Amino acid sequence: MDEIEKRLSEASEACVKSYAAWRKDPKEGGSREVLMEAVHELRKVAARLEIEIAISERDEMAAKPIPIPPHRSSRRGGNDGSDDNIGNVMEAGGGSMGGGGSFGGGGGGGHHRGPRRHHRGGGRPQQGGQ
Questions:
Q1: Model-level pTM?
Q2: What would the DSSP string read from start to end of 36-98?
């Protein structure tokens, strides 16, 4: 019997016993306090059990290879895989982040211009007479 199983068994037994004692005399404060402590201990064991389950699921998911999405795997059939990055269009010299392509904010030419600033007069004077 592992630690969690032992704690779960002991906590649930104590909870059942203290519940039975409390039901005999619900107005007696001592039995109520013992029952509350038993319920609290049962919650702690249940929380530990949930953590163990989550850890086991995480480890199980890490062991599985991530499948290739169907829209990518259909392109791989019959060619050399050179079009593997067809959805990641970048212009020459675009850099690795936000370089422009089909995504990223409706500008023409695909060049990253930084955040848009709306000036309503009174801003910095323009350079070069434009």
A1: 0.47
A2: HHHHHHHHHHHHHHHHHHHHHHHHHHHHSPPPPPHHHHHHHTTS-STTTTTT----TT--SSS
